[in-house]
Structures
1.
Amino acid sequence: MQRFLRIGGFVFVAALVSAQQQPAPLSIVGLREGIYWIRGGSGANAGLIVGGDEAILIDAKMTAESAQAMLEEVRKVTASPVRRVILTHSDGDHVNGLPGLPKDVTVIAHANARRDLEEASKDAKLAGLAGWLPRESVADRCSLNAGGLRIELMHLGPAHTDGDLVVFVPSQRVAFVGDLVFIGRDPLIHRHKNGRFSGLLATLRKLLDLDADTYVSGHAEPVGKEDLRKLLATLEATEGKVRGLLAEGKSLEEIKAALGVQEPAAGQRRRPSLVEVIYLELREKK
Ligand SMILES: [Zn+2]
């Protein structure tokens, strides 16, 4: 999610954050042996996997300062150096803190997320990212080894973006899923990054097939399979309603009205609602 990013620059970002929500202090929470959830600070939740004498971060917060605060938290739980960071996707609230990480850190991302980062780094405000472009990109699947701990990286198809990566630690049954899971709000499908709602449904089904019991996402508390099942059922129901109304020949405006979609207040950034995204995809398939 990049709610505040690239909408009129950092002044706007700061104003919105201070007026609406001060980010919670950054803290690190142990989930399993060697597996941590990093919450608070500026930007999305991040994660940490400690295997042998290596610490691997998942995502990089939204500012260099927040990334450095994250490293301080990491030092409270392990003396192992951070040598790699895996990006779950390319949104600014997950990656713009990269310049706060050590210069020699290896950045790993999906090839399409790398493409987005390279593009973003052309913006003068984000030029610092150029020094942290992923050296290793993942096409579909790969396995990492951290001191004997196996970590699976999986791209399950276009969903939130077309460069989403799931970071799965089979021995601990934990999956870091970035923004593939939103709880308590509609999922965000970035059509400008080739995200697909149909792909999100497919991805959620694949996440349920994993031998995992904990899913750590960018903007919610960790959840289990039951929450994921409920989320999938809700989204399938919404898709069914849009499909039915479309088959009756209803327009987008009529469908949005029938499903109670609120338009954003004047002055707020307009993002296509989930109903609109589903409608557009169903129309494209026709
Ligand atoms: Zn995102």
2.
Amino acid sequence: MKRIAIVGAGQSGLQLALGLQQNGHDVTLISNRSAGQFRSGRVTSTQIMYDRAMRTERALGIDLWERSAPDVHYLSMSVGHPLDRASTLCDWSGRFQAPAQSVDQRVKFADWIELFEQRGGTLRIADADVATLEALADDHDLVVVAAGKGDLVQIFERDPARSMFDRPQRALGLIYVNGVDAGDAPDKGYIDISPNIGELVSFPALTTSGPCDVMLFEGLPDGPMDCWRPDFSAGEFVDTAKRLVSTYFPWRAPRYARIELTDANAVLCGRLAPTVRKPVARLPSGRPVLGMADVVVVNDPISGQGSNSAALCADLYLRRILDHGDQPFDAGWMGDTFEMFWRYAHYVSSFTGMLLKGTPNVVNAVISAGASTDLADAFAHGLNDPRTFGTWLMPNYH
Ligand SMILES: Cc1cc2nc3c(=O)[nH]c(=O)nc-3n(C[C@H](O)[C@H](O)[C@H](O)COP(=O)(O)OP(=O)(O)OC[C@H]3O[C@@H](n4cnc5c(N)ncnc54)[C@H](O)[C@@H]3O)c2cc1C
């Protein structure tokens, strides 16, 4: 049995903690929020997850919401006409090979924290800093930092060679709503593109009050969709969403005409710089700690990949730890572990970067998919496994 400390109770940290616990390890989890604080707090993500990542939760038996969360069977993509916004260059649907789902992280993380405690795990509520990490390193065999986008990530050096960007590429506005008119297609997720303006990503989800829809607005910096302010009232969030839909995505306006927030905390805005970091940080004592998921590879949410990558990272780190037996978790093992994750994650970063840049091959492929069911299905499958884009959309990536 190993003593392992995990800092950050999010998708990757909780999944790894529960997996290690099930395999007989002694896990200490440091979270800056309790289950109750997650449940009553603000939304954090849109967190659509695809089959490949969901399988890693299923394998641990921690897929607690598969029956209650709405299934998303189709990906719909559209591109507005740059000169005539009322019309579109394409508007197609591709079918996922297995359904996707989105479970509000307020629900998921709160339930998982409680499960971890019920199973005898040690949970400490604290805003961990370097001194906390030193103390954890004193009496644990391994310290994993899974603190998402928190300040603690700064101890991990940015990797300029692997980071495609050095600043945020989109201004983000997010709301969870009821009242979407889904017509006869309640099981579709949407990525709608307004050229040179931004994107609207929307799909069904499960929130604290039950099924809902999430709407994520991705505006080009300093453009007309870069308009969200943290001091907006709940009403201003909804009014802004309706205005942006009717102005920049008018072909979707009927779908969102009667939306209302699911709850007062169902709003979020901000921006993040897509960044890849070195996976091992040295504490002042010289001891190494290992970064995971968003700490080491954070992407813009336009491609809806972060939770998926976090689940796959947790799955890989779990197997690496279990396979390591009694050997020490040194910096070499940590670096090798991350490199195995990067073999997958670089496809995610590359695909996300191409979407953000609106590279011609991606835009042309999206438009062409309007005339090809196979291509539309290939897009849907690519979200489930971005490595498959390497065979046709981005052949220069291996
Ligand atoms: C607007 C938006 C929409 C998104 N939509 C999607 C999507 O549709 N699909 C998808 O796959 N991904 C999406 N993502 C990304 C996804 O939410 C993240 O990539 C994923 O949650 C990362 O998992 P993680 O374990 O690395 O970090 P997180 O899940 O963020 O967990 C980190 C945890 O660490 C805690 N923490 C931070 N600092 C400390 C500290 N010092 N001490 C203790 N605890 C700490 C945090 O409170 C949090 O609980 C979206 C992100 C955003 C911002």
